[in-house]
Design goal:
single chain, alpha+beta, 7-stranded antiparallel sheet, 4-stranded antiparallel sheet, 7 helices, globular
Amino acid sequence: MTQALYESSIKSLPLLGRGKVRDIYAVGDDKLLIVTSDRLSAFDVVLPNPIPAKGIVLTQLANFWFDKLAHILPNQLTGIDPESVVTEEEREQVRGRGLVVKRLKPLPIEAVVRGYLIGSGWKDYQQTGAVCGIKLPAGLQLAAKLPAPIFTPATKAELGEHDENISFEQAQVNCAAALADALKGTGKDGAQIATEARDAAIALYSTAADFALTRGIIIADTKFEFGIDAAGTLHLIDEALTPDSSRFWPADSYQLGSNPPSYDKQYVRDHLETLDWNKKAPGPTLPDDVVARTSAKYIEAYEQLTGKKLVD
């Protein structure tokens, strides 16, 4: 396995920005190079030490899902080898963790789909009997499977800020405002695109969740990101159905009424909850054993879902 990468340093391409996990470079005017680092964020704070192999797991698992779900919606992939767009000296930084993708206009929302009652959804349900304003049957227990998956969009927060849940109607308003110029001449409007995103997100989640169950994994919830091209065609972008964007539970230890063990970064969140930390930057350094176990959890999720060994 290659050495952990906390931050890429590609000099041969213009750097457009760094997110919590991904570094983004321009490849001409119509493509991007996305390098998925081994950074880990928890409670919207990027922690100071990397999780070895995490970026490779995220990239390879997203590729697996992009391929499996391509019949539902177009995605961002171009098929261009990321090693071909950087210098020879920079290839190690993108090997296994880089993607050359289409340059698309992103929707201003996180497209969250929940299939089980957990996390902030459980807290909301206990207080209101609903999740993000969507009324649910009375008497549901923690970790209950919902009657049907629900779409609960959120705003996209700036680095270090928290995403905020919004109604579907507000998501339509946000998309209408953000996409108005990009949609001129396409015959579409932002509210229509938000509706397409909702329907696509539920279809993607449902198909993936059914498949994951055959591999012994419950996908409790997930979030997608979408973008549009010049014709207003919706695309799946960013990542998809990884341990960073989803709650993965081992099906054989799932028990109604209890918080299941997890393949995702919940392990890190649980550790951080034991600390005297205000959940603001800078984040605390993770102990070596937490780093090692988190890396192992990510790799295990990849290998169980895909049936393949992780190679970089």
